[in-house]
Design goal:
Helices cover 33% and strands 18% of the residues. The protein has 193 residues and is of the alpha+beta class. It has one domain: 3-Layer(aba) Sandwich (NADH Oxidase). The strands form two sheets. A four-stranded antiparallel β-sheet has the order 1-2-6-5, sandwiched between helices. A two-stranded antiparallel ribbon has the order 3-4. A hairpin with a 2-residue loop joins strand 3 and strand 4. The protein is globular and about 50 Å long. The chain starts with 16 loop residues before the first helix and ends in a 16-residue tail after the last helix.
Length: 193
């Protein structure tokens, strides 16, 4: 039976442990309540992410399992995401403010990505597991939470306690135990003078 004890990345150059150890699970404990202190710290890390000109052009929706908000987010998830993400203790929606006072905020999506990254790293440091998703209905999220056209949903992140792989479907077990791979840095760097 596969286990999820060590998923540390094999890196080509040294990186800090918290980054090498962080990975995106799809197996969450469906009974665990969110660790509120860890969630608060992750939100605080998000708050201190760099943003262009300190515009802070981002927002989050925190939807704890069992709430109406959680149900609305789960119903907006697409395909395979809807099969596993509902087990997470919370679903956090990251939203970019792409227009302010009629002016485009061209950097807002980038900044919101940094916010999500800071959240993810802090969550992992405090023992929470996370998984970001792009497969969801953005219009359904906007309608459910009354988001104006000034806001664009960037990602939905499942957050919670790592679950027991033995309770997962064979398909989910295969995905969770597959080798962690990334293309080499040299294939991503366009210019390195």
């Amino acid at each position: 039976m596969p286990t999820l004890t060590d998923r540390t990345a094999e890196t080509d150059a040294p990186i800090i442990d918290i980054l090498a150890e962080r990975w995106s699970t799809r197996i969450f404990d469906p009974e665990a309540v969110i660790d509120e202190r860890a969630l608060a710290s992750a939100l605080e890390a998000a708050r201190w992410a760099p943003t262009a000109a300190n515009t802070q052009a981002w927002r989050v929706i925190v939807a704890r399992r069992g709430s109406a908000s959680h149900s609305q987010v789960v119903s907006a998830l697409a395909g395979f995401n809807s099969a596993w993400a509902g087990d997470a203790s919370a679903l956090v929606v990251f939203v970019a403010e792409t227009t302010r006072d009629g002016e485009p905020m061209t950097w807002a999506q980038y900044d919101t990505g940094q916010v999500a990254a800071h959240f993810t790293v802090q969550a992992h440091a405090d023992g929470l597991s996370t998984h970001q998703m792009g497969g969801f209905d953005r219009d359904a999220i906007a309608a459910a939470f009354g988001l104006s056209d000034d806001f664009t949903t960037i990602t939905v992140m499942a957050v919670g306690t790592l679950g027991d792989i033995r309770t997962a479907s064979a398909e989910l077990q295969a995905r969770e135990t597959a080798p962690r791979v990334r293309r080499p840095v040299a294939d991503s760097v366009l210019v390195n003078d």
